[in-house]
């Protein structure tokens, strides 16, 4: 059942959610919302890279690769971790170089809509993973739940920035960047050569 509509609807909705966050960050001036959108795009990219490189890595040894293709999995982790660290560095640089400026209230709407989409994707994936008894889908549901917590933090940060102090937006963006760095370092720690 996960072969038809379900195989592309969740990634497509994830892409829509990411684009909403990025557009919302640009429209409202929210660095946190923009950072969350970039992190979501990186998650989609890393999943694509991981799947592609995993598909290569499981090929049996051949004449050009007598020890197999396992190195492609390691390369996947390194590439995605470097991308995460690079984007996190850009976010941190922006946080420290941007003067505190007003975040427009439209950011709340963009953040709320993207978070609602992420809630739907997360719960659908969780429910279907139980129905399908799929470890991979259960792992993806856990990953999505972490993204959901991040999106809720960003929503809170944007609300606080709009109604109380714009500094909350920069603090939230720095938090998103730190979560990205932690994720990249955790991924790199999985490499066993």
Key attributes of the depicted protein:
193 residues, disordered N terminus, mainly alpha, single chain, 6 helices, globular
Quick overview:
By secondary structure, the chain is mainly α. It has 6 helices and no strands. It starts with a helix and ends with a helix.
Secondary-structure topology with pairs:
Layout: H1 5-28, H2 31-57, H3 71-97, H4 106-132, H5 135-163, H6 167-189
Number of helical regions = 6
The end-to-end span amounts to 37 Å
* Residue-averaged pLDDT: 84
β-sheet strand percentage: under 5%
Largest sheet: none
Strand pairing plus helix content: what structural class? Answer: mainly alpha
Q: From the alpha-carbon coordinates, what is the Rg to the nearest angstrom?
A: 18 Å
Low-confidence spans: pLDDT under 50, at least 5 residues?
A: 1-5
Shape: globular
Order of helices and strands: HHHHHH
Would you mind describing this structure in some detail?
- With 193 residues, this protein is an all-alpha fold.
- It is built from six helices and no strands.
- Helix 1 (5-28) packs antiparallel against helix 2 (31-57), helix 2 (31-57) packs antiparallel against helix 5 (135-163) and helix 3 runs antiparallel to helix 6 (167-189).
């Amino acid at each position: 059942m996960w072969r038809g509509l379900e195989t592309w609807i969740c990634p497509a909705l994830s892409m829509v959610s990411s684009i909403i966050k990025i557009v919302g960050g640009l429209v409202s001036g929210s660095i946190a919302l923009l950072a969350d959108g970039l992190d979501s795009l990186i998650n989609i990219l890393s999943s694509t890279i991981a799947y592609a490189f995993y598909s290569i890595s499981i090929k049996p040894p051949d004449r050009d690769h007598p020890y197999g293709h396992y190195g492609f999995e390691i390369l996947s982790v390194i590439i995605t971790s470097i991308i995460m660290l690079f984007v996190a560095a850009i976010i941190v640089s922006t946080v420290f170089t941007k003067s505190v400026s007003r975040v427009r209230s439209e950011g709340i709407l963009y953040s709320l809509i993207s978070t609602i989409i992420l809630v739907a994707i997360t719960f659908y994936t969780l429910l279907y993973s139980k129905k399908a008894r799929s470890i991979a889908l259960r792992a993806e549901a856990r990953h999505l739940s972490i993204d959901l917590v991040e999106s809720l933090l960003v929503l809170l940060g944007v609300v606080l920035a709009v109604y109380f102090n714009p500094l909350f937006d920069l603090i939230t963006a720095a938090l998103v960047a730190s979560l990205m760095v932690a994720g990249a370092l955790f991924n790199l720690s999985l490499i066993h050569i």
